[in-house]
Design brief:
The chain is an alpha+beta fold. It is built from five helices and 14 strands. The longest helix has 14 residues. It is globular and about 50 Å long.
Length: about 240
């Protein structure tokens, strides 16, 4: 794909606009090269796993998860207020802080906010998802704790205005944070992503994906911690 298309894709992502129409069929390697061009104008704050659910992989006709980059300027902390944007979704995830070899050093609860606005339903393919950086939009990271393998037993519950909208185990995505960190690190190396000491990895969605509608949210991960945030009407 052309440089002009990559620039148009990057602009659409940054402005929450509809994505330009995709033309032609990319290979997976080509899609990751496009992704690299798309994210180049912005600082990178981490790496995310996406399409970790086997049902979604089957739908997209792939047999593995995908990876994307997290934008450093889109990281928020617990207690934040985020404006409503039509089409956004929420994913309950676990953030793993790794060293430059991909070994876990620390862990935190996390929420990823995803936005995908394909111009046509037929554009929603695995390779096009990779090219547009898997819909990475924003993410909220809770208190970071020292790595402890016993956190693999944690469960989470997400509430909107007091109503439970998601319950899951942290092992739902890629068999848990430890395996997620290993897989993402290896895939990042394979795809030419930079992996540095202190890099943050999001290990994939646990449980159901929820629409990011207006409301007050609490994500309770038990002893792993809690994230509170609000989605407001915006301006």
């Amino acid at each position: 794909m052309s440089t002009d298309f990559s620039h148009a894709l990057a602009h659409a992502i940054a402005s929450h606009a509809e994505l330009p129409e995709f033309e032609g069929e990319l290979s997976l390697d080509e899609a990751y090269r496009v992704q690299g061009s798309v994210v180049k104008p912005r600082a990178i704050g981490g790496i995310k796993a996406g399409v970790t659910a086997t049902a979604l992989q089957r739908f997209l006709k792939i047999d593995h998860a995908l990876i994307g980059r997290l934008y450093a300027d889109s990281r928020f902390a617990s207690g934040c207020s985020i404006p409503y944007v039509d089409g956004r979704t929420l994913e309950c995830e676990v953030a793993i802080i790794v060293d430059d070899k991909g070994c876990p050093k620390a862990i935190a609860p996390a929420i990823e906010i995803v936005l995908l606005r394909f111009a046509r339903p037929t554009d929603a393919s695995a390779v096009n998802l990779v090219a547009c950086n898997l819909g990475a939009d924003a993410y909220i990271v809770g208190e970071v704790l020292p790595w402890d393998p016993t956190f693999m037993d944690a469960r989470l519950e997400l509430r909107r205005d007091g109503e439970v909208i998601n319950q899951a185990a942290v092992t739902d995505a890629l068999d848990g944070p430890q395996q997620a960190a290993l897989w993402v690190s290896e895939e990042a190396d394979r795809r030419g992503f930079e992996l540095s000491d202190g890099m943050l990895i999001l290990g994939g969605a646990c449980g159901t994906v929820s629409p990011a509608t207006v409301g007050r949210y609490t994500a309770d991960y038990g002893r792993l911690g809690t994230i509170e945030f609000e989605i407001d009407e915006g301006t």
